[in-house]
Every structure is written in C-alpha cells, then in structure tokens.
Amino acid sequence: xxxxxxxxxxxxxxxxxxxxxxxxxxxxFLANALFTRFEQAGRMDDLEVSISLxxxxxxxxPPGHPLRSLxxxxxxxxxxTRFEQAGRMxxLEESIVLRRDALExxPHGHPLRSSSLNNLAVAxxxxxxxxxxxxxxxxxxxxxRDALExxRPGHTHRSSSLNNLAVAxxxxxxxxxxxxxxxxxxxxxRxALExxPPGHTDRSSSFNNLAGAMSxxxxxxxxxxxxxxxxxxxRDALExxPPGHTxxxxxxxNLAGAxSxxxxxxxxxxxxxxxxxxxRDALExxPPGHTDRSSSFNNLAGAMSxxxxxxxxxxxxxxxxxxxRDALExxPPGHTDRSSSFNNLAGAMSxxxxxxxxxxxxxxxxxxxRDALExxPPGHTDRSSSFNNLAGAMSxxxxxxxxxxxxxxxxxxxRDALExxRPGHTHRSSSLNNLAVAxxxxxxxxxxxxxxxxxxxxxRDALExxRPGHTHRSSSLNNLAVAxxxxxxxxxxxxxxxxxxxxxRxALExxPPGHTDRSSSFNNLAGAMSxxxxxxxxxxxxxxxxxxxRDALExxPPGHTxxxxxxxNLAGAxSxxxxxxxxxxxxxxxxxxxRDALExxPPGHTDRSSSFNNLAVAxxxxxxxxxxxxxxxxxxxxxRxALExxPPGHPDRSSSFNNLAGAxxxxxxxxxxxxxxxxxxxxxxxxxxxxxSNTLTRLGVAVRWAALxxxxxxxxxxxxxxxxxxxxESSLVITPTVQMQHKILSGRNGYPTLASDxxxxxIEIGEVAQAVEMLEQGRALIWSQLxxxxxxxxxxxxxxEGLTDRFLNTSRQLESLATSSESKPxxxxxxxxxxxxxxxxxxxxxxxxxxxxxxxxxxxxxxxxTSGFEDFLRxxxxxxxxxxxxxxxxxxxxxxxxxxxxxxxxxxxxxxxxQLDSDFDDNGPSLVRDLKSALQKVQTEPNECDAGIxxxxxxxxxxxxxxxxxxxxxxxxxxxxxxxxxxxSRLSVLPFHAAGPIRVENRSRKYLLDDYISSYTPxxxxxxxxxxSKPEIRGxxxxxxxxxxxxxxxxxxxxxxxxxxxxxxxxxxVNCLVREQATRExxxxxxxxxxxxxxxxxxxxxxxxxxxxxxxxxxxxxxxLLDIVQSNLPNAEFxxxxxxxxxxxxxxxxxxxxxxxxxxxxxxxxxxxIGTMWAMADDDGPFLAKEFYKRMFAEEDSPELGFKRSxxxxxxxxxxxxxxxxxxxxxxxxxxxxxx
Length: 1236
Prior knowledge:
By secondary structure, the protein is mainly α. The chain is built from 53 helices and 14 strands. The strands form three sheets. Strands 7-6-8-12-13-14 form a six-stranded mixed β-sheet, sandwiched between helices. A hairpin with a 5-residue loop joins strand 10 (1110-1112) and strand 11. Helix 30 packs parallel to helix 32 (695-711). The chain is elongated, with a radius of gyration of 38 Å.
C-alpha cells in the first residue's frame, strides 16, 4: 500500500472509526472504496487490503448479526476477484463456501436471496470451467433458474438473470450437444437484450452473447441467417466498446471469428482481410500476460493460414499444405476423393505440428480427420485408416493438454481400427502397436495395472509381426522396452529391466545416424541404464547413461519438440552422479538444465509438473550442500506448483505430496516452526492415502510419515504405522508368484524393519497387545498369503455352499499361480527377445493374478457380508492370537532400532513386556554376525568355532533369556514347561533354545534346554493353524503313524546308511526310499500316504533364491522349498529333517519371511518339524535317529499325540548327545523343534 493510502486508512481508523466505536464495523465502507479503486486501476495491493478489511468487518458481524450476509457476499466477491487475477483455486473454493453461507442467511422472502443465488451460481459455474465437473454446471443452472424466478418482469436485475442462465445452459449445450439448451439460450439472450435498451451499460454484452449463441447454432445447422445476424450483433457490440474499453479486445476477436466463418462459407476475401485486421487489433490489446493472448495468436494464425490457402505463399511444408488445400477445393461434396483430401491435409498439418509445436495445426488436423471419417462409412476400404489417424491426433492433443476425454476417445478409435485389421492384414501390427501405446498412456494417468499388462501383450504381438528387416521393428522394440520398464517400476522385477535394456539396444542399432528417432533411442536406453544403476550401484551404467543423454540432447536443438525432455533427463542423470561423487559442478549443471526444461514447458504442458518437481529436488539438494535458505524456499514453492498440477486421481500425486512434505520437513528442522511440522505431516498423510497412486510409492510415503510423526511424538504415529503395514500387505497383491513377491520384500522397497518398528512404537505407548498384532500383520507375509488361500471355511458351506465353492476355486487358482514352476527365474537370450516366449508367459501370469485377485476381493467382501463372518481373512486380533499360547507361553523377541523387547504371550492374561537393554538394539545384529563368523571356522578351527558360539549363547542368556526365565517363574511357569520362541528380523537365526550357561551351585554347565522344552514358530498364526488342523487325542482306531524315510547315502554321507537302518529296525510301519528310489516324483507321491517323514540327505541353500532351497535326491534331482509348498498334506504330522541347513536362512532372504525348508514342511501340513540351523555332522545322524525314535515310540500308550512328543524327545536326545565325548557345541546346538 502506498503512503497516501496508508495515511488515509490510519486516519479513518483512528479518528472516524476509533477502537470501541460501534460504527467500527463500517470497515466494509473503506474496503469498498479500495475495491472500487482496484477495479479502476488494477492495483493488486488495493485488492489485498480490501480483502483484509472485509475479513475484519465479517469478524465484527457474528452469527445473528443483521448484516452478516452482506459481509459474507462482499468478502466472497473480493476473493473471487483475486481468483480471476491469480488463478488460485483456494480463492475460488473459499468464495463458494462464503456464498453458500450467505445464501443460508437469505431465506425465502429475503431481499438479497436472488443476489445470493446468482453469486453462488456464477462461482460454481466458474469452478466447472476449471475442473469440468458437470455437477457444478448443473447446480449453477438450478441456482440461476431460482434467481430468475425471484426477478419477475419489471425487476431491475431480470436482464442479468436472463443472461446468466443463458450462458449456463449454452455451456451445458457445449458439453452435451443438446439442441434444446442452445435454443433456450438464444431465447434467454433475446429477452435480456430487450431489457437493455440503448444506453444500458450491459447492452454491448447482450449483443456479444446473443451473437455467440447464433454463431453456435449456425455451426450446428449451417443456416446462413444465423451467421449474418451474429455478424451484425458483433458489430453493434463493437460500436459500444470504443478504444479504451476493457472489453474491446473481446469484441474485436469475436467479430473476426464471425466474418472468418462467413468467408469460409462464401469465399469473399473482404471478410478474410477484415478478419485479419480485427485479429491484429485484438492481439495488440492483449499484451503478454493477458489471459486471452493465446486465443488471439490462435485466431490470427488461423486467419493467416486461411489467407495462405487463397494466395499460396509458403515454402516446403507450407507449400504442401497449400497444395492439400487446393486439392480439397477441387474435391467438392460428393467427390470420391474428398475423404482422402481431408486425410492428407490433416496429415500435413499434423506433420507441421510435430515440427513446430503450433497447436493450431493439431486442432485443424483433428477436425479434418473427423470429416474424413464421416465420408468413410462401414465397409469403406480406408475406414480403418481414418480410425487410426484420428486416434493418433487425439492422443497427440491429450499429450499437450492432458484432457482424458481425448485419450479415451483415442483408445476406442484404435480398438475399432484393430477390429478391421484382422490377422493377416498388412496394417495389423500398426494397430496393435498404436492401441498398446494408448492404453499404456492411460495407465500412466490412472495407475490401472490392467492397462499396462494389456499394453505389454499388444506390444509383443506387434513385435512378432515386425520381423527383422521390417521398417517398424525399431519402434516395436522401443515401445515394448518402455512398457516392460514401466512394469519394473511397479513391481521391482529385475528381469523386466534387463529385458528393457536389451530391447532398447536392439532398437538403437536399427536407428543409425540420421534416423529421426535416434535421439529417442539414446534417451530411452539412457533412462534404462540409470534405473539399473539405481538398483545395482554400478557406476559404469550411470556414466553410459550420461553419455547417451548428451548424445540425445545434441540431436534435439533449440526448437525441437523433444528438447525439454532431453534437458530434463540429462539433468536427472548428472544429479544422480552428484549424489555419488559430491561434485558440485554436476549439481549446478543439473539445476541449469532443469530450469531450461521448465522454460520449454509452459502452462498447460503435460510435463510441467515433472519439471517443477525435478527442479525442486535439485535446488533442495543444493540447499543441503550450502545451507542457503533461498534454495529451500524455492524448492517448496516449486513442489507446491507441481502438486497443484497433479489433482486427485493423478498417479504422481502421492509423490508430489511426499516431496513437498520432505521439503517442508527440512524447513521445520531448520526453523522449528510448528506450522511446517503440521503441514509436512498432513502432506505425508494425504500422499499415503491417495489410492490412485502406486502402492509402493504410497508405502514409502507412509513409512516416512510414521518416522517423522514418531520423532515428534505426534498423535498420528500409530495411524501412519497401521496404514504402512496395510500397504505392505497390498504391495504383494499385484505380484503373481511367491518368488517375485520375495524379491519385492527383500529389495529396497521391502521395508524389512517396518513391522518391528511399528510394534516398538505400540509398546512405547503401552499398547503391547497391538504390538503383537502388528508383528503378526507385518511378518511372514508370503506364508500368511498362502495360508489364506487354504483357509478352512466348512462353516460357511453350511450357510452358502455356492459362495464357499467360489472362494475355494479362486483360492486354489491363486495358490497354483503363486507357487507355479513358471515362476522360476527367466534367463534372457536373444531368441527370447525375438519371440517374446518367456516374457509372454510372465505377462500372462500378471494378467491372471490381477484378474483372480480382483475376483477373490469380491468374494471375500461377500463372505464378510454374511452374518458371523464379518472378520473373515482380516488381520487377527490379539484375542485370537493369544490362542497360540494355549499349551505354553510364546516369547516374541522384537528387535528395532528404536528399542528391543521380549513379549511373553499368555493364553489367559494380557501379554507381558520385558524391555531389553538399550545396547541390545545395536548388539543384537552383532550376535548374528558373530555366529556366522564362528560357523565359518567349523572345519578349519573347531575350537575357535565353539568359543564363538559359546560367546553368542552366553550373550543371549545374559541379555535376553535370563530375564525371560525370571519372569516366567514369576508368572508361575515351572521348569520343564514347554515354551515357544518367535524371534523377529535378523534375530530369527539365533539359537535362543540353547542360551547359557546358567550358573548353578555345583558349577556344572547348564543351558536353557536343560530347564525348558523350547520350540520355535515363525508366527503365532502358524502355531494356531497346525493345532487347529488335527485332533488332540489319537483314537484307538487311528493306529500307529506311517513313517517314510528318504535316505541318500553316498561317499560324502556314509553314515546315512546306518541312520536309516536304525529307524527301520523291527518297525513294520517304516517305509524307505533309498538311493535311486528317492526321486522327486516318488517322494512327493509318498508324502500323502505317510504321517511322518524323515529325510537323511544333503540339504542345500540357494544364496539368491530361497524358494530353491532343496533336499538333494537321486541322480542330481532336488526337492525344492517350492515343491514342498505346493504339497497339501492334511494327514501329515511330523518331519525330521536330518539334512544340512534344513532350518537355515540366507543373508539375501527377506528378514521377516522365515523362508527355510522346515517352515515349508510346516506350511504343507506337518504339525511338528525338526530341522538344523546350519551344516549337520554326518556322524551324528545314526545316534540322533536311534535315540530320538526310541523315545518317540517308547510312549505309544500315551494319550498325547506322537508328534507332540517330538519336542521333548528331541530335548532328551540332545542332552544325551551333549554328554558324548568329543561333541562340539555347534553339533548339539544345531537342531531345533518347530511347531506344535
């Protein structure tokens, strides 16, 4: 505000309306004065001050004040005016809210009701113009009608109501094409004009509006009378808008459009020349920054092109366009080649657009393609070409404007074209490719995986038809590469990324120097290489990417339509290099490149939001290096701009919320402003909740939300963790096989500590039961999913047999897909790329998984709608989970960077928490490393191996187990009680069952297994499931269990011969598969006929793929973990896995998934399983078998099921083994019991 205005305001407030003066509410008078001056001079500071004063006046008129509605309307009008100036949607939204409030204060009969109705109608119609929401337009029409009813004939505002309603119904006509609306609009405009006689201030507007409606009707009907009347009306309006009038440019432009239209009908050059003059005059009145300047450019360009059509003055492409126009003039209505001329001219205009980016060319091309299509009815030989060409033009316009209607129409048109290009048609491959590109583009907008999967299938079909030597093969290779790389970004499958790289290299080879698409190939291959660098950290990939991006940029000089993309991509690559090397030159270059790209992406450009985002990330990175707050502030502004361009439903909206939240969080960390903290948390929450964004992206946002909220003790922390756990589960839904799912969970986006972190927070706030629930929900996700497919629902069958059968059938199909042998890793070879055979199989699996998962989701919803099944397949509550402790306590060892705890789950009491020492948070993982280091010395330095293991056992006792035992005693659990261990995260490989030694009075060495019978369970649900699936008491008619022994003695395992003979001795219920009998097929077949099984063979860990852990069988055959999972053995009871690593895990295995052979045996149906944590000594096999089974069969008269005796029998056998001379620690600690 200038000095004069400030002095005036201060004088009024101090002398005319001092504090306490009852007239101080007259602030609105001063606001009105400033608002009026803004309208005259356009000074924004006047508008801003008036808004502040209007707010002050409103605050002084509380609910019930007789002038409150007036203040609401005045403030609404001011903020709406600011919206018109600045385009800020929040101003428009506030205006609508205020006007609704004002309307509520103007009931029927109120003198201001009609004004309130009109004002609200204008506001919601304006929002329609911004968002396209038809609900707003419909509401506006209703409101305008209500206002008109209150403005009876003779009312001073009736003409305005007539005009406003006319504008609204004409707008609806433009959306729906309903001629009734257009006819009503014309009648209303005529009525309004009659009420605005000469001298009326709004007469020119009525002339203009009626003229626009008449022109529109002409366009629909071709009646020249309407066009002539429109021209007369526009001239009348222009006469009433002399030089200096604010609306003169609009009248000039409108009249120019009308006379141009008449020229097109009559060919009178006077009209065209006048139109050009008028358009130039209008353009002069629309300087840079004017909202209608682009329209004047467009209109004048159209008029100039039309004059060129008459004069023929053009070069190269321009000459081609003239020729096409001359040809079209020679193809009058009825001419057989008229459709071809339309098509050819459209093609030329599209080509010029591709070279220059002038939207006028593209718009004209679309019109021409539609005209051509109308002249090619069903059966016309070129109809499919018109479908395809029009679809291409619509897709191009979508890329420029982002209007989804254009993209949807393009997809429909491409499908129509494909139907006409049957197998064998020469253009079928093009139709396949074009449709694929369109549906992939829709995926990029909506995130619907169905579209991406369809696109990949279509691209593969097109590539098959583009054999080597085909001119379009490079395009097919490139398009398929882009699609599979996009799928990699959704699923994390490295096979897709590797295939994309191979495809891009092949495409580049087919695009030598001079090829028009060579720059695109450089760019695409560079992008794929950058992505691989992000996964592997190989600097060679990043350096190659930068070189390729520079090569692409050289081929995209200033003016090239792809230059902004090349600038942005190169910027991203050098930014990444900066992150690796810290070279500031790279960061500075990235910022310059991003700014250059942004300049080439003006408002309306589809990639403008990406440029805002990328530049924001770069300048924020510079802030982190230099501490310059200007950079951070700019980053925040840029992120806000990006978010505004990504409305609800945009697939990148979550990313924008995340980035803005991160930048604002950084500012909070610098300044401590609580507003920034709250905003950051809100943004994280909205980003995590945005269902249209990628699940993995949302998961990352939720994790960051939880971390920030927790660090600030915010109340949203628990909510954030819950959502993150839910999203972690959902991240597996789109992935068809367990192997692919494991890659996600073990990769960078697997968030291995999420469940433990969430549980640690729940413990921190005293919600121990919730902590147990969170650990159960977020751990062993693969096992949980598979277990869900086998959920017993016989009770549901009694209620709805059909629904039960549908659930079981769909679940079986999903399990079959998840565990299918096709999920084994795919190796890329050149032949695969040529035929697509391997990847087509994967594509089909993805599509099938998505279809089946959708079916199952619907079925589960139906089940939950059934009385008594409301919680079907929901995460189990603690009231259910505690059933795992019905036969003894379960001790969960929760480990997190925040804290570590031992949670004792009890059957009949709340869970008990024991917080472990703070140093265990760091030292827990070190015990894992110490154990691994010790075991590596088992062959070469056995004494050091034993010493290392003993150190680990002693640490476990001192830091964890001793405290658990002490609390168990306090809880009344005596020694020799059965207990279950459920360690989480990395700690799941530690031998808690053997912790010690325990100090006793006689100085003998005593360990936990001497006092308690320990078992393990991967999860509480796993333990509950194995108990539920078998009766507790073996009836007299059940008989003795049948035991299968699988034995593979050889030179490396000579004692296996003695081991299996010790088991079989004098026992007629023991059946053996030995040596060559032990094939994979024979073992699987015999599983179903035996309750018990004993493996005595080699066990192998696959370092990269846990589902390929295996038992070694005859002739090099293997029984893999995946084979075991595929088995469903309802009668199985007990398994002894006397093989190396049968309960061992690898470093690459996802921490919380507990993927080992013993867990697989338990999942397949075995209630109790004995396995080995590491390599087993062959010498121990015969002794263990003899002593163990002697104990198992010594109590045959016991009512306890045999498999439940296995834990006690193993404990006693190990105690006996430990007493033998020469037995090292690693040998007796090795074996563990899992299950019931």
